[in-house]
Amino acid sequence: MVIKHVRLKPGFVLKELGGEFCIFDERDSQNGSLDGLPSVNETCIFLWNSLERGTKVTELVSLLAEEKNLDEEDATLELEEFLAKLIHGNVVEIEK
Question: Residues 10-20: pLDDT tens digits?
């Protein structure tokens, strides 16, 4: 599947909790992290912040490759894995 655009849904935030970063739904009164997204690594934090700034999907691979010193193939795999988690967690709206 080719994704043209990804937008974070309102109400979802990245928070630090006990030294780990997790994605939370601000509307959750229990303040628990999302199922399937218990914690995220530095790469995920970088991608999340990029999405918050409105970075286009087409730009994310090159930005990630440069930031983490990865080749394009590895950066693509990292991005695909992260987006799959966000899609599964119903955190983003996508345009195919």
Answer: 988 898 888 88
Q: What are phi and psi of 21, to 5 degrees?
A: -95, 135
CA 55/CA 48 separation, integer angstroms: 10
Q: Which two tokens stand for residue 46?
A: 């970088």
Q: Residue 95 phi/psi, 5° resolution?
A: -120, 125
